[in-house]
Input
Amino acid sequence: MFEYAQRIKILPPYLFAQIDQKKREKLQQGVDLIDLGVGDPDIPTPQPIVEAMKRAVEKPEHHRYPSYEGMFSFRKAVADWYKRRFGVDLDPHTEIVTLIGSKEGIAHFPLAFVNPGDVVLCPDPAYPVYKIGTIFAGGEPYILPLKEENGFLPDFKSVPKDILKRAKIIWVNYPNNPTSAVAEESFYKELIDWARENNIIVASDLAYSEIYFGNKRPMSILQIEGAKEVAIEFHSLSKTFNMTGWRLGMAVGNKDLIAGLGKVKTNVDSGQFQAIQEAGITALSLPEEEVQKIRDIYRERRNAMIKALEDVGLEVYKSDATFYLWVKVPKGYTSAEFVSLLLDKCGIVCTPGNGFGQYGEGYFRTSLTVPTARLLEAVERIRGLKL
Ligand code: MLT
Output
């Protein structure tokens, strides 16, 4: 038998792969499953993007290897979108690289900057890939707890000096998965000042920037003065344009950080299919009303779901972004116990808070990626538990 390498041995099974397995078992038993697990939009990709893809796939020039850094026209579309949306100027030649989905970039980025034994400051609870990418690079994740009393923001100033000396990267992700929290400008300002003082790379994951319901639109860290000296931002077309299956994202920001990630990528992949990038240009050029329509659907679902969950006595963290709700498990249950109960007794798939890290214990996450009627049906099933 071949033995796994240590870096793989120490990893738990990937959170959503494990949940998929349980889901399959229930479906095989014929359970009418309501899937509030992974954040995978149920709304189809807007038609203009699909049409653009159909045209692009016919073009023989797209059938050959793509460029490593991504088509210039796609990177230019990213630069135009960032300018329009955030007022941020980016040079498509040096400050943008195309990704095969932002997960790929997030997992690969530490390989470019982390030596074995270096520390990466990772929030907890969080998207698991920040920690996984760190481990792949031989780095040590240092946990920054995200606590409700701090608005689920990390207290980066509390990092002890000896850790700080070894720290290379800090990960932040707002609007936040899984808690749905948002970060204000003052948080980002302090973070950038601190990172510049301590020579730490700030890696921001902005995948949920367009899923917001308040009047204030979430910001890019690159809007902060001086951010380009230390920051790289990962973004994705997945959540904004319902394109999770297409695998298209981008990293933008400091040119040396982009070049480092680009160097890793030239050695491990050969770029994203150009037809997908061409469809991505159409996505990034869609009128704002198209995205607003998607946002309105989530808003309606979110409001209905919060009301229904509160009505059965569950406590929901109320933020105004992302298509997730972060909910406290009822007294007497652990996250894993309650999520198992939901699956076994109600046929509902949710994600246990501790799957995102130890500080997620005591919570579970529901996605709003099913129609309102199904969300309400889920809550009726929960009501039947008589908690
Ligand atoms: C999630 O459910 O946390 C995300 O969909 C995972 C991902 O974006 O890869």
The first helix runs from residue 6 to 9. Residues 38-40, 103, 127, 177 surround D-malate (CB under 6 Å).
